[in-house]
Amino acid sequence: MQREGFIGGNAAIRVRAAGGVLLVAHLAFVAWFTLRPLDVPWVMPPNLTPFAGIRADLALGRPEAARRIAEGLALLAPLGVLLPTTHGRLWTSTLGSLIRTALAGALVSLGILLLQTGVPGRVPDVDSLLLNTAGVVLAHVAVVPVSRSWLRRHARRAVPQEEAAQGRTPTFPRVGIAP
């Protein structure tokens, strides 16, 4: 199973299953948090200009801007770790994994943005799409390459022990290829 690039064994199945359960739980929380109706006296117009909301947050002052930007980065950041965990590949391109995860995070954020157009009190903001995607990318870059490298080193040490336990592959010398 190691030659195919997946984490092998029962432990891998448990890790993937736990990652899948955590992924579904996180997406359910994000849906509840971002798609519940708000009771507000007025609604701001939608922000469709990239970085306009971030500039407005920075104009409010450093603590408020830092809080709002950190919220945007942190909302979908766990996807940067949970998506590769549910996939379970150890030997895969780092750049390919990053691109797949970033695109999946951007699509989830875009889906939330589109669903918010029909929720009372929620206003679509293109900056939230940018911040959410950046959060997914930052979490992926910070955690996934290091954890995959550690798991690869661990898997290389475990492979000779597994081969010794299994023994040699039996051969059948009299079996030929059919005409």
TrEMBL record:
Pfam families: VanZ. InterPro entries: Teicoplanin_resist-assoc, VanZ-like. The keyword Membrane applies. The keyword RNA-binding does not apply. It comes from the Bacteria. The chain crosses the membrane at residues 12-35, 69-86, 98-117, 129-147. Residues 24-143 form the VanZ-like domain. Keywords: Membrane, Transmembrane, Transmembrane helix. Residues 159-179 are annotated as: Disordered. PANTHER family: INTEGRAL MEMBRANE PROTEIN, MEMBRANE PROTEIN-RELATED. This is VanZ family protein. It comes from Streptomyces aquilus. The lineage of its organism: Bacteria, Bacillati, Actinomycetota, Actinomycetes, Kitasatosporales.
